[in-house]
Amino acid sequence: MSGGRVPVKVEGRDLRLSNLDKVLYPQEGFTKAEVIDYYSRIAPVLLPHLRGRPLTVKRYPNGVEGPSFFEKNAPQHVPDWIRTVTVPTPGSTKDRDTIDFAVIEDLPALVFFANLAALELHVPMWRVDGKDRPRDPDTLVFDLDPGAPATIVECCRVACLLREVLDEDGLSACPKTSGSKGMQLYAPWRREDDPREYARKVARRLESGHRDEIVSVMTKKVREGKVLIDWSQNNTAKTTVAPYSLRARARPTVSTPLTWEEVEECDDADEMVFTAADVLARVEEHGDLFGPVAP
């Protein structure tokens, strides 16, 4: 059973799924079949945030308690109907001038990667055009990372401060949990100036006004009890976990879009932990809370 392959047809594409009963989240007994089921059911709201974006995955072939690896290059056995793009990668840590990325455009491609135990889906803040050329960034991101004993509760307070600044500048932010311990704010970016420089200035401005709560540098010794506003994610070489992606935690938690009311009223970190089942129910209720971010 665990080693068997099951042929399936997904939107006209033939796939062979394997090891469906393998437990990938031992604490909850959550299997690969359930991972594939989650990604299949969340696809309508997830796919708009993946289309056109070169994909980096984090794979856990033996579950979240086993070894894992990041994979940027499209697997050699990727079907020819999955889009791949060759993107320049100057300064690559592996001395590669280009990388052949996969791009998830549809449900069959999403199921293919879920079957590889690609639990986490990471994408950049930019897309490729119809000729596979990188476009300018279309999204601004702030990654809020709490330094213990701070938690996502403190991140929510900082998110509200960030929202005020962005509103003043005509930018509409959407919040989401990271699915781990922090959260992120995204905003559509349609300006010609550099989003990285803009984000740096905003983070430094908030740090200067709230030094007991906020830092804007990565140095660990200054982060205790504070929230790091990581503006450096606005870098064409970096990726951020996609909204609705699973995370490789003890439980099958998800990077979950939030309402601003939830952010404003958060006073318990446990309120901001959402599993795959929770997120499917939330989408039934709210639709895609991150819809404004997708171009």
TrEMBL record:
Pfam families (alphabetical): LigD_Prim-Pol
Domain DNA ligase D polymerase: 31-290
InterPro entries reported for this sequence: LigD_pol_dom, MtLigD_Pol-like, NHEJ_LigD
GO molecular function: ligase activity
Record keywords: Ligase
UniProt protein name: ATP-dependent DNA ligase
Species per Swiss-Prot/TrEMBL record: Spongiactinospora rosea
